[in-house]
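DM from R.C. (forwarded with permission)

"hey, sorry to bug you on a friday — could you get me a structure for this? deadline for the figure draft is monday and I only need the backbone to look sensible"
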Amino acid sequence: MNHKTTLFLVRHGQTEWNVQHRFQGHQDSPLTDLGVKQALWLGESIQNAHVDIIYSSSSKRARRTAELIKGSREISIIESDMLREINLGIWEGRNQQEVKELYPEKFYDFWNNPEVFNVQGGESFKDVSERVISKLNQIIDKNRGKSILIVTHTVVVKLIMAYFEERLMKDLWNPPYIHPACLSKVEVMNNKFEIILHGDISHFKEENSES
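My reply, with the result:
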């Protein structure tokens, strides 16, 4: 029996630290008013799509986004530490400009050579990919034939989509850009993947004001 499994993959809405261009990683900051709206717009745009279960990163910004998308629907939200953002160690809470000045080579690697990037107290992209893809496959195995919403973070969305695309790690940051509360949709059947949407923001009702 062939069952199609549908994945809706979402980045959390805009946060205060996104606006301040701070690295968040395992740390957290609240959604902005716009971030809340972004999540609500997405919830509205997929309100007629059937969703069986929601998995969320255990970071509050992702959990809050998941709750806003869910709205009044009766759907369970399961939190997982394995869906958290890349741990950025000593960079967390720091402004990107400051990090660029203090650690120019590592900052360059983060955006241009993700395959060699490392930071004190943090994870490599490979570390994150391993934990995230293992969790993703667990989720798919457990929910075959269902429709699953996963609310997580930029690097995690990038790595999951790279896995489906067989994109090389060195090309990780190539477009599309993963905006806050953007939607990617992937259908899985017989271990074959079809990407339907990737970084879609057609549900936005105002100009996106975050780079």
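R.C.: lifesaver. Helices lie at 16-19, 33-45, 60-70, 96-102, 104-112, 125-142, 154-165.
me: no worries. The longest strand covers residues 192-200.
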